[in-house]
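Comment on this:
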Amino acid sequence: MKIDWKKVDPLIEWSIEEDIGTGDITTEAVLVESIQAKGEILAKDNLVLAGIDIVPHILSKVTHDFEFEPYFHDGDHVPAGKVIAVIKTEARVLLTHERVILNYLQRLSGIATNASKFASLVEGTNAKIADTRKTTPGWRVLEKYAVKVGGGENHRFGLFDAVLIKDNHIKLVGGIGEAVRRMRGFIPHYLKLEVEASTPEQVREALEAGVEIIMLDNMDNTVLEEMVKLINGKAVIEVSGGVNLGNVKRIAELGVDLISIGAITHSAPAMDISMNINALG
């Protein structure tokens, strides 16, 4: 997955405007003269890097006079204490845009690192780790990119690109069978249909309706194991709800196909990344 710059560039521009506004009053007052400087972006946590290509995009919004040298790339495991990249440009540019740059790197590397932890725990099983729509408003394209960088998979990007009949849909129309019947008459034949099921009875209904994917929602491992045997290859099995680093391996070992985890994005801790700025020459 590559970054869609058409979607990200407006976010970058807004981020700069949000932080700088009419100007960096501290830097403008302290640095009257032009000083060339070097900024070292430093990892202070062990992390999986994500978002490094955003750095030159931020800088290019404000200056064409800069050098950017990354020592690591997205997806790399970076040990704490290592310099991730070096920027050479005017000191005022570094001081004014330091926080915008670090916000992107810290947030996205946090998600990539979190995704990597989950993905490593299911290695050797059939299961894949996937994200959800529980993302920061406006950041979805970047946060889902970071999940991929960390070794996870992307679930649907939005409501427009996949079918997922959830509990509230089912309640409002009176059952899974009716919801599926309506969907079959609405979607093209090649689009797969997924249904959320929270009870064994709903799983049976979904199987009778012939859906392609069944999401087993908030079931304990005993019930999950029974449902995997019941489905027995008749549908792709997704598990969601209550998944964490402590139980994800056991869930994967039950033989499920996909484990979707909202916490990969909404609860990922930001990585500690700093910038050391020193004058050149």
Remarks:
- The first helix runs from residue 5 to 20.
